[in-house]
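ARCHIVE CARD
Drawer: 12
Card no.: 0347
Subject: one protein chain, sequence and derived structure
Cross-reference: see card 0346
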Amino acid sequence: MSDWEWYPKSAPRRVANGIKSQIPRGGYDRTWWTKKWIEAIERLVDAGRLERGRSYARTGQVLNIDIAPGRVDSRVQGSRSRPYAVLIEIEPLSEIEWKCVANAMATKAIFAAKLLSGEMPQNIEDAFEAAKVSLFPKYSKDLKTDCSCPDWSNPCKHIAAVTYLIGEQFESDPFLLFRLRGKSKEEIINMLRMRRTSSELVSPPPRRRERKPKAPVYRVEPLEQCLDRFWDSSDSFDDFEVKLEPPPVDAVPIKRLGAPGFWRDNRTDLLTLFSTGYKAVTQASLNAALGSRDDQADNHSQQSRASNRKPRSN
């Protein structure tokens, strides 16, 4: 007999403005960090309660989710008139641990570039492992939960519903993961900027000057004597290759430096404005270099019409 079967079964009271899960029944697999969070929860919470928690999350029984460093406070509407208070606690990382994590992040340019642009790198867990800590809860002791409902088993279905919706909150804002572990998005970005800037300001140690060998002197052939060979390529260009592709992170300067001090327009986000402009310029440049699909389609259409056109008879 399951623990909750000691209590008479009753349907929860429906609420009008609850937080409903927007992720389909297929699973929480849209982003890797949400999937990691759910996998961690499924290892630590009873499967039966997780299933009932999913049902609560889908029907909107959770009234609020407030994420703060080291804790999540929530209210869940059950069968009683008064919502149950849910508390989920995760031990925040210490300042020393966060410094080790930030140092590991700063050593990899792709980590810094993506985080400074507001993206979560795929293998960000490597930075935490290098600091010998974990971004996600691993053991039952890492996750402390409490609910005011009469079910004495912990975690209960109300807690399970909140954990699923926390994963959905991470779906839209992965930096809430860092906040739960003790640091806000702004603090993480500032830590990275300080480390990246200081590493760039450190000048390399002075080297002894070495005399460079004199460049060989080649006889230059007058232009009028080689006009017939002027456009011939050298054998050394056989391996020459040009790749035209967009950068992995757009608008890096503005994303890394942030909005300037003179920016006062609260209605427009400078980062969004510049990011949109960078993407438009990149796409226009690629279209100009490679030819847009519309141009290729027009050329193909013109060639087809020309081939089908019959010559006029005089």
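Annotation on reverse: Residues 270-290 form the longest helix (21 residues). The CA atoms of residues 196 and 202 lie 10 Å apart.
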